[in-house]
Amino acid sequence: MLKKKIFAVALCAVMAASAGVSCGKDIEISDSGSSASETVVAENVDIMNFTAPEQGDTIIEMNIRDYGTVKFRLFPEYAEKGVENFVDLAKKGYYDGLTFHRVIRDFMIQGGDPTGTGSGGESVWGGSFDGGTDPHLAHVAGALAYANSQGTNTDGSQFYIVTGVQNITDDYFTNYEQYGASFSEKQKEIYKQVGGVPTLDGNYTVFGQVIDGLDIVFKAQYVATNANDKPLGDGIIIDSVKVTEYNGEDIRWYLKDYDYDDPTKQDIANYTAPAEGETIVNMKIKDFGDVKFRFFPEYAPEGVENFITHAKEGYYDGLTFHRVIKDFMIQGGDPEGTGRGGESIWGGKFDGGKYFNLIHVPGALAYANSQGTSTDGSQFYIVTGQECSSDFLSNYSCTDAAKEAYTTYGGAPWLDGKYTVFGQVIDGLDVVFKVQNVTTGDSDKPLEDVIIESMTVEEYDGSPVRWYITDYDGTEETTEEETTEEAAEEETTEAETTEASTEAAE
Q1: How far is CA 220 from CA 20, 240, 291, in A?
Q2: Fold of 269-502
Q3: Where are the alpha helices (DSSP H) in 94-248?
Q4: CA 84 to CA 489: how far, in whole Å?
Q5: Where are the domains of the chain?
Q6: What CA dihedral angle connects 481, 484, 486 and 490, to 10 degrees?
Q7: Of 227, 231, 34, 14, which is closest to residue 119 (Cα–Cα)?
Q8: How confident is the model at residue 40 (pLDDT cuts 50, 70, 90)?
Q9: pTM (two decimals)
Q10: CATH class of segment(s) 3-260
Q11: Do residues 123 and 66 make contact, with C-beta atoms less than 8 angstroms apart?
């Protein structure tokens, strides 16, 4: 039977590797929907997430390293076993030092697994328990719930805090209702006010709600992550989870209650200047000139380490740009020159991850991959891209800052979130644009070799940076009208451009 994938609907947290349980934020719903007798109608009860605790009620204080403290009220009247389990584990210090091992922007942050893999953890009684569900508690922003693998009877120690979709409209509910989903009027009302993930209701045990620190949760969801949505580096560490009492302090249920600096409103990271003395790389391309890169180890630590170490060891010296596509990118770093070779400094592949505010504007330096960022190796590409109209960008999920950058400078927005961007050209972008104009043959391979003569690791000396192609003399810009016409003629699909940049070894 034909299936349709619905984004951000299911939360699979406890990965039973031996059973081959697949995890993700997608769910498949049959085209045929449900019959009237099969449809479960949501109860139109009051949603109680935003009811204040009473003086002396048990609350939770979660201290997240480098972020701050998040406080939760609990609902033993609706999730008795779920509250008991979490409180007793917290009292034992079970959660202290663990991480949020899975973070998905506009969805949730997930932790509570001692193994940090998503496959571990157990309840205070050992193994799993059934926390149940209650229609009075919804997956609004700030909801605290148990992750499970195949129903609430697989609740354990793993939990998640909802961030979810903001600005939910009636169209959101209509979209899911056509596949048999059911939402009460009170659900719809509350979700349109505060956001969340309505499609999780009835499938997971909600047992708490953030009463202070919601801005911290929202900031945490923007951490750099790998292909499995795991934060890079040391990750997000839970220093402690304490059981305490509510003493009548002010409650801040909603994101609007905070002086919240929305990361999506901030400038993209690509165009932040390096500090004097920072490590940069100078790439000398034979017969074309020099290209200099700055790096972003704060967002792509392994990706930067891999490239710089390869450069120091001379790995790239003498290699070619084996694939060049005008108004898209130039790709190199393969010792075989075929698009099928190369490896990381650790041997084989590695996961360089992704960060939402490093995007594919002209001059972006990123790793080519075949099946996600977990297949990063030595191959890289430098974006040239095309100018992007607002209508064109409406096909992609971009932050306001990304939209502004793409409409101003162009790029390849369809690659965002799929590849590891780890550097940016700070000088020599004109050289990159000259390379993209070489004559190519089969598989977009230049007819005459474009050779990386050398890569030199240097320190940034504070000299002026030239981010934009307009900063260079003698360069020509393609007009938006021309790029739009060219795009229409070529009818390049996202799948085709993705394949072009990754050189999948098939």
Answers
A1: 29, 16, 35
A2: Cyclophilin (2.40.100)
A3: 170-177, 185-194, 214-220
A4: 62
A5: 3-260, 269-502
A6: -170
A7: 14
A8: low
A9: 0.74
A10: mainly beta
A11: no
